[in-house]
Design goal:
This protein is mainly beta. It has one domain: Metal Binding Protein, Guanine Nucleotide Exchange Factor, Chain A, CATH 2.170.150.20. It is built from two helices and nine strands, in the order H-H-E-E-E-E-E-E-E-E-E. The N and C termini lie far apart (42 Å). Bound molecules: zinc ion. The site of zinc ion has 8 residues, from loops.
């Protein structure tokens, strides 16, 4: 787990109350959802992707792309600094773990095999995201 202090602080009990069991497993216990299980994977609507735990804006639909991995993928974050990284040594090869910098929610992993211009691939659990469609009337 991350031992860094985040602006949003909740006890384990509070997190359990505020999240579904599946969200809790991914966000707090750093689990990974089954590939191709997220409804957001095929979502091509214009809008914003927020942290499901605290509502922070994380990704814009403009940077979402189909990576073929089975998880929603983005090549850049909406606002610099909203997402933090740490080294995940759970597997033999260390990976870069990414989390919401506001509440510490585990989101997924970051790889450097994404498309131009960033060459980054934010491989995100759809369960950790809540999608808000852009207002069509504007
Ligand atoms: Zn958050």
């Amino acid at each position: 787990m991350l031992n860094q202090e985040f602006p949003v602080q909740k006890s384990d009990e509070e997190w359990k109350e505020n999240l579904t069991p599946e969200e809790y497993e991914i966000i707090r216990n750093h689990k990974t959802e089954k590939p191709f299980s997220s409804e957001l994977l095929s979502n091509k609507n214009d809008g914003k992707y927020h942290c499901v735990a605290c509502g922070e804006l994380l990704f814009d639909s403009g940077s979402k792309y189909d990576s073929g991995t089975g998880w929603p993928s983005f090549y850049e974050i909406a606002t610099e600094g909203k997402i933090g990284t740490s080294v995940d040594t759970e597997l033999l090869l260390p990976r870069t773990e990414v989390h919401c910098n506001n509440c510490g929610a585990h989101l997924g992993h970051l790889f450097n095999d994404g498309p131009a211009p960033t060459n980054q691939r934010y491989c995100i659990n759809g369960t950790a995201l809540s999608f808000k469609k852009d207002n069509q009337d504007q």
